[in-house]
Amino acid sequence: MIKFLIKRLLEFIPVLLIISFIVFTLVFVAGDPVALLLPEDASQEDIENLREALGLDRPFIVQYGTYLSGLLQGDFGKSFRYNSDALPIVLERLPATIELALSAMVVAIIIAIPMGVWSASKRNSFVDLFATGGSVLGKAMPNFWLGIMLILLFSVTLGWLPVSGRGSWMHLILPAITLGTGIAAEMTRLIRSSMLEILSQDYIRTAKSKGLRKFLVIYKHAFRNSLIPVITITALQTSTLVGGALVTETVFSWPGLGQLLIQAINTRDMAIVQASVFVIAILVILMNLIADLLYRVLDPRIKYN
Amino acid sequence: MTLIRSKTETPNTQKLSISLLKSLLKSKTGIVGFIILVAVVVVAIFAPILAPYDPTLINPTKMLKPPSWIEGGDPSHLFGTDNLGRDILSRIIYGSRVSLLVGISAVVLAGIIGMLVGLVAGFYGGWVDMILMRLVDSFLAIPNILFALVFLAVFGPSVPTLIIVIGVTNWVAYARIVRGETLSVKEREFVKAARTIGVKNSLIIVRHILPNVMSSFIVISTLSVASTIILEASLSFLGLGIQPPTVSWGGILSDGRDYLATSWWLATLPGLAITVTVLGIIFLGDWLRDVLDPRTER
């Protein structure tokens, strides 16, 4: 297992290198930040001097090398808006985003597991229709619109929950539901199809024919096994989850990474943008790795190679 | 399925389209999706004729009028007006143009890139495959919307940039599926036979592999239009997509957010337009999947 882990961790290196290259190229193409750093009436000479001082006059590949060695030391550059290192600013926002993403996951699981299992065990019934219809609708609704509609209903009209911000658990409810339903839609569909496949297998027929109660057959025999593919595919959705969090945070003014990133993009604070991209990428990669390990623990038939 | 061009092809295509039509009529959701999509396309094409007003026409005497069926509504503005007195119905009608334009063009671009990468990686294998798949992994590690945001931050928002940005960030799904299909098709007898008689690789790809990966390709493309429309709306909602004065559904929604307490219709109606359109495309895509790609589970 250790060997497998090391191998997987080594595989991240090229991925992170490619990401760093793409991001660096983009920022390079965007033009240098000198124009933003100097006053508008700065002379050509001042501009040249600053470019030289920042090393922006050097060739692309040299600049990329310097950038890479900085990255290895956790140096993502300075945010000129906050006038300090970009990485700590980004990391400071991370807990809020993780809190939102995890709560959304909990919401998704609470909705998706009962719906998926129930609809598969009563195929083509009203429940099944409701679950499949609901999951299609959940996919069709833009996340941010659902959020706004929830605000309209629960905050503006009924006045039960706060409109925006972070603080008590009351603040978390609407953003978590907004982000969670989108994930639940996909998850319900997956659990349903995974359950349907397993319910048609021989060992389920055996369990049924030896007179086990239906509840036991479904939960003990079928449901457990149906979770295996669900976990992997859910982990692959981390990327969707984090992407959704970026938008949901904006809707609810949730002080996480997404909000910081949108601000940074609007003010062209590229150090923050780059650091955020990396932190998010590493987060997604790690989640995928955890899922991969979990997958192997749940299904011992899968070998570590 | 081969690409041999012969005169007998015409009746075959005719037969195919008739059988497709028959199966569409049998699928309830398929037909609903088809009707929705045709309606949206018609609205987008004939927007100047269908829209009662110029979508950017400001009218200070009629600000924030509710939809006509509600008390205080103005009968001449079916869906009401916004904070500048602009007609919401006209704005939604014009908004369909951008959504479809960006949705379809970005999918075509992403499809072409993904198809090429998938075919090359799957067919040639070896180090080419390894490098391309690492590239795919890198794109997978970053949420689509994040990539799109960074691109937009660098190149600035405009319709062509948006199409390129979404196209360039969305090709990964195609590449993976086309690669997988290519890997399995390339082991089939007819490809081996073609190789044995010395057919050129490029010809094998075009004549034998491409037609066989086409059906799953069409299915993902259709479903991608749905997610692309949502992505465009999200970016426009965040203020980094379509810029005013061009009207987009995400943009109208974003404007309406500030008037949630007093004028609910501003944010509600464009969202409804997005949801119905996307629903139609998903229905159509699911039907296509059942017809063209019976192996995949729903």
TrEMBL record, chain A:
This protein's name: ABC transporter permease
Pfam family, one: BPD_transp_1_N
GO terms for cellular component: plasma membrane
InterPro entries: BPD_transp_1_N (IPR045621), MetI-like (IPR000515), MetI-like_sf (IPR035906)
Bilayer disposition of the protein: Multi-pass membrane protein
Family the UniProt entry places it in: Belongs to the binding-protein-dependent transport system permease family.
Transmembrane annotation, as ranges: 12-31, 100-121, 142-163, 169-191, 227-252, 272-295
Native species: Lysinibacillus telephonicus
Keyword field: Cell membrane, Membrane, Transmembrane, Transmembrane helix, Transport
CDD domains for this protein: TM_PBP2 (cd06261)
Principal location listed in the UniProt entry: membrane
Compartments where found: Cell membrane
UniProtKB/TrEMBL annotation, chain B:
ABC transmembrane type-1 domain location: 96-285
CDD domains: TM_PBP2 (cd06261)
GO cellular component: plasma membrane
Transmembrane segments: 31-53, 100-123, 217-242, 262-288
Pfam families linked: BPD_transp_1, OppC_N
Membrane topology, as annotated: Multi-pass membrane protein
Cross-referenced SUPFAM superfamilies: MetI-like (SSF161098)
Cellular localisation: Cell membrane
Keywords: Cell membrane, Membrane, Transmembrane, Transmembrane helix, Transport
GO-annotated biological processes: transmembrane transport
Family: Belongs to the binding-protein-dependent transport system permease family.
Name used for this protein in its record: ABC transporter permease
